[in-house]
Description:
Layout: H1 20-29, H2 35-51, H3 56-78, H4 90-118, H5 128-149, H6 155-170, H7 184-196, H8 204-216, E1 237-240, E2 248-249, E3 259-262, H9 265-279, H10 284-287, H11 295-310, E4 321-330, H12 333-339, E5 357-364, E6 368-373, E7 386-390, E8 395-405, E9 411-417, E10 423-429, E11 437-442, E12 453-457, E13 466-470, E14 476-487, E15 491-498
Antiparallel strand pairs: 1-2, 1-3, 4-5, 4-7, 5-6, 6-9, 7-8, 8-9, 10-11, 10-13, 11-12, 12-15, 13-14, 14-15
Helix pairs in contact: 1-3, 2-3, 2-4, 3-4, 4-5, 5-6, 5-7, 7-8, 9-11
Amino acid sequence: MLTLPLEPTDDRANPIFKDAAGCATWLNQLQLTNLQQAHGRLLKELGELNRYPMRGQDRLDILELLQETVGFIQTDLAKKLLDKALPLNDLELLTFNSLLHLWQAMIAGYQRGLQSFISGEKQLARHGALLCQRCLHFTGLKILEYLRTGYECPPGLWHQLHELYAYAEQQAFQHSETGAQSNCTASYLKTLLVCYADPAQLTRWQLQQIDIWLSLWSNTLTIANHYATSLNDAPPLAIDLSGSQGLQSTTEISGHASMRYLPMVPLSKLLRVKIILLQQGQTPLQVGLGNQSDRQACLELLSLAHQNWCEKKQLRACVRRPVNLPTTVVGEPARIFQTRLFSADTTDEADSASRPENWQMKDESIMGACLVRTDANGSKLKRRQLIALHTVHHAALAATVWIRVMQDGKLKTGVRYFPGQPEPVRIRPLNQPLPAEYAFLLPALPALKTPASLILPRNRFEAGRIIELIHQDGRIMQATLGFSVEQGFNFERASFTIKK
């Protein structure tokens, strides 16, 4: 049953505009040069409007006028949070909460309209599908705001999204067109698929493209009550309409009456055809991807989308085992070097500012681990950041793969281990009067056919550069840097050869 968590209206509410004409006049006078101020005015007036008792049709007309301006301001303001380290600072949190509040104001407005429809307002009789689709759309945008910023979405918001779609099914208007190639099913699936693609790891451009493409491909996507699988086809994904999560693998959830399924074979075929055509030299416009000039960027995004949506999750090289190990973590390369986690001398000579943070390891495999910070405060983290961790069993260098701020405020991250036992070394360019800098030497692992490599500070790599490699025991070797193996936020891993 659909529940709409709405506060009572208030006769004392006094919005500046009370009909579409007044709203249009106000929008024409709204100055967008000061983004923060315009955002605040919109939020204030929407709050007043949502408290104001009025006919549902008038409310709908006003909200439809506000949509474009709200979207423009939200998109611009969200750029302030682009690729920020987590957790956000106080000023960034203020921006983040402002974004959430404006999405919620739009949700509440359309929910009031939907409530008027349910109550039988005659003027809204033909707008039920539109109102439900708008509720789905803006609820999805609020969920996406959480996930792309790196914050865990409240379970109740997912539950609200599923309830809205279930209501659309009950009213049999889930496929009713609501304009701009959209309907309740398309809006619902767009949110589910974008969130399943791990939006925190996508750029704003990639998110915008996926949004555009999913609108173009809406006829390819369907929701079914049952599913079938075949060995070499893309596996279907599952949706629990009574649950509080997004899409899940069918292997992770048991079937019951509220289950729905998303067949992925049609979307997989569409993506693979477009990938092949781009590889053959066709332009994104020729392939039906819109007027995008960067063929390689489109090709990479299509491949990533296919991997996330249509391919079976790769089995880990070793099954992750649940653990509950106290773990110390250092998140800056220079501080990692200072704490001597990997040296024979394990005496902690670091000052208090360099001391490791306290975390808890939740699960681990030979490839990586999942960690939750137990300290109340600590440093920020970014994706692809070099960290060192130490448990009672071992010490390791790792790179963060994903980072999330949980509902309780704790920081959670998944990390990928670098192979082998790292050796702290120092490096300096040959014959240049520069101080030596920290680095880490990763040993060759013949069993894995992995040659030795160096982890350097970011922006220190230059192919062909000759450096001095200074070991802890005082030995000095000359080495020539080869090629960049990978780049991270605060490091670069490079191949090298020792000069004889």
